[in-house]
Write a structure and sequence with these properties.
The chain is about 30% helix and about 40% strand. With about 220 residues, it is of the alpha+beta class. It folds into 2 domains: about 5-125, Impact, N-terminal domain (Ribosomal Protein S5, domain 2, 2-Layer Sandwich), CATH 3.30.230.30; about 130-210, Alpha-Beta Plaits. Strands 1, 7, 8, 9 and 10 form a 5-stranded antiparallel sheet that branches. It has a 5-stranded antiparallel sheet with strand order 2-3-6-4-5, sandwiched between helices. A hairpin with a 2-residue loop joins strand 2 and strand 3. The longest helix is centred in the middle third of the chain and has 20 residues, at about 110-125. It is elongated and about 75 Å long. Belongs to the IMPACT family. One of its GO terms (biological process) is regulation of translational initiation. This is YigZ family protein. Pfam families: DUF1949, Impact_N. It comes from Fructilactobacillus cliffordii.
Amino acid sequence: MDQPFLTIAHAGNHEIDIKKSKFIANIARISTEAEAINFIQKVKTDHKKATHNCFAYVLSETDQVQRESDNGEPSGTAGIPILEVIKKNQLHNVAIVVTRYFGGIKLGAGGLIRAYSGSAAQVIEAVGIVQRVTHEVFKITVDYKNYDQLNYFLTTHDFQIMDVDYQAMVTVTTSVAASALDQFQTDLQNLLAGNVQFKSEGTQFVERLVPNSQE
C-alpha cells in the first residue's frame, strides 16, 4: 500500500456484558488471509466453550477481500454488523472476532446486531486508530553554504531530521511521504538552485495516531 490508509494502532480486546451474555471482542492487524484465519482460529481455541465466535475482516488497500461469519447466530446479526463497523471506520488489514457466552436471555435480531456492532466499535475505540503512511528515506547532500537553508526548510516544514553527517559536504537523512516526494525534491532543487544531491535509502512506514472524534 503506497497510499496512506487507516488501521488499528495495535491488537487488543474489550469485554461488555448485555443481559447476562458476555461479549469479548478481539482485534488484530493482518496482512494476509492466512494471518486472518490463524487469528480467528486462535480466538476460537482460546474460547472453546463459547456459544459463538463471530468474525469479520478486510484485506488490501481497496478491501478486495472481505469475509464475515455469524457462526451460528441468526443470519445477518453478527458477522455483517462487525464488518460494517470496520468499513464505517475506514480500516484496512483488520480482523475482529467477537466471542459470545450466552447468558440465558435471548436478545432478538435487533439486540444481537446492536451487541455485535457495539462490541466491535468499542474494541476499535479501545486500541485506537492510526494513519499508516509510506515514507521514502533518503540522504540529502549539500555544501556547507547551503546547509542553513536546507535545515530551515526541513524544520519549518516539519520533516524529521534522522541524521546529520558532517564531512567534506553535509549529508542529512530524512524521510517524506511517498506521495509528496516529487514536489519535495522539486522545491529543494529550486531553493538551492540545483546544488543538492539525493540518494534513496529505501522506504519505511510512519504511523500517526488519529484523534478520537469523541474527545
